Sequence to fold (338 residues):
Amino acid sequence: MGPNGDVGESGSASRGGGLTTGEVARRLGVAPTTVRTWDRRYGLGPTAHTGGRHRRWTDADVARLERMCALTATGLPPAEAARLALDEVLPDAPAPRTGAAPRAGTAPPPAPAARRRSRAGSGLRLGDVRQECRGVARAALRLDAAALDELLRTAMEEHGLVTAWTEVIVPTLQAVGRKWESSGERYVEVEHFLSWHVSGALRRQAPPVVADRPGATTVLACVPAENHTLPLEVLAAALAERGLPVRMFGGALPVESLVAAVRRTGPVAVGLWAQSRTTASRPLAQHVAAMEWGVRGARRKPVVLTLGPGWAGQTVQGLPRPSGLAEAVTAVESVALR
Fold:
């Protein structure tokens, strides 16, 4: 039994004359359970079984599923999308051998239909991105929770947290944001759905909380009036992945609470996230950077990282402004591991 639960899933695509369910799911960017559900509910399964229980999908079978993905991505109900996908007959007959004439009384086999390029996710302008982005986009547009969770888990496990965030999740989030901005707020639910599942995936994949170590803890918080916590959640998980202790305080932390948290933890670094220029505060960053603790003669100050697009044009002299997740992780490591 293969890793996706189908008998024979570990075999090669050519064995038995087609793709396995797991291979089809990876090609489409959906969970294997989604493929099986479409087979069971809507009859979108392989046209033939080979080798007993072994299920093999031909090019025409896959093309029908690609059409299903494209239709559901536009918001069409799955049952209606399946009906349309089944109505579009895509021939899968093998081409005749060179020089071979068709048998008497039979029509010559039709020319193979051109493989349909999957347009699922084409409602989002993704551009030149990893294939996983298209799968995540399809699942988000369909509001398919099971498929989205599986795709996010796989991306984080296969590529690591930093690469999965930078090259899979961020491009998809940005595409969703562009979509709702240009369509009259119609896709806000997709952005919220995707963000929620990314947050859940981070919590499931994150290593256990690292115990405090004197002079090594990092405090992460959004500035007052800022509620975009997801980038800080990713940074917290990435630091924990590297064995660095983190104290996460989430969105819109009041100034007094931020100051109290810094005094109580004595962090080596403080990351302040601002999504908007209206929330970024240069005086706040300077105030935190000037805070001291420790015994007389050995007083310490935190390194304050100004994180997020809100700090563009709000550069605070002497304070690092990492441009992305990898740079933020490197900046924290450079001071925490001294």
In short: The chain has three domains: 1-90, 128-205, 218-336. The radius of gyration is 26 Å. DSSP finds twelve helices and four strands in the chain.
